Amino acid sequence: MHKMLGLALAGSTHMPKVAATQPSLADRIVRDIQSGAFSPGAWLKQIDLQERYSAKRLDVRRALDHLAGKRVLTHIPNRGYHVYHLNPDLQKQVRETRVILEAGAVPDLLSRTTPAKVQALRVLAERFANMIDDGTLMEQYEVNLAFHAALYDMCANRELVALIHEMRGRSPSAPSAEWVTRSRIEQSAREHFDIVAAVEARDVTGLQQIIREHILQDFS
């Protein structure tokens, strides 16, 4: 198990390696958010970002719009953009609600599991693991979204799936706060493979436990 992850994690250190993909302006902003250069709730001025990153105004605006769409930033019309911030108590309630919904979806999704769906999920888990070295934070984010979408799209209950996606959308974006160190990204990757194994084994209790830990340990 985890052969692909083992390759991705070879030579692991506490800090992420430089990605093979050239970081975009959005990635550079995310890195600065994680480093503490921009704190949660801080307003970002376009003119300051233009100077900081030696970027054109249009490129800065596109990067800000992109990050707002990923919940890294919040856009307030006529005011601007600030770093996404969720009240800790509300965030805890959102995560607890997610556990109820996502763990509750397990019997439904496992009843519709097929070898092809398991393989598609495994491919996404491997892609995420490989991107620890070869991808940017935003690329990892997109694959992470695809992995969880593929998992819950197995469900027959589409209303439940809609609720799951809605609640996931109310959590802070992983690149903005959670994946600060390589070790945290690696743990998320390992949990993806554990999810795939539990789905393949049709292990209801095991999958529910992994999902619960995945959410509450801030790696979803």
Automatic annotation (TrEMBL):
Pfam families: FCD, GntR. InterPro entries: GntR_C (IPR011711), TF_FadR/GntR_C (IPR008920), Tscrpt_reg_HTH_GntR (IPR000524), WH-like_DNA-bd_sf (IPR036388), WH_DNA-bd_sf (IPR036390). Gene3D superfamilies: GntR ligand-binding domain-like (1.20.120.530), Winged helix-like DNA-binding domain superfamily/Winged helix DNA-binding domain (1.10.10.10). Keywords: DNA-binding, Transcription, Transcription regulation. Residues 19-86 form the HTH gntR-type domain. The keyword Transcription applies. One of its GO terms (molecular function) is DNA binding. PANTHER family: TRANSCRIPTIONAL REGULATOR, GNTR FAMILY, TRANSCRIPTIONAL REGULATORY PROTEIN. This is GntR-family transcriptional regulator.
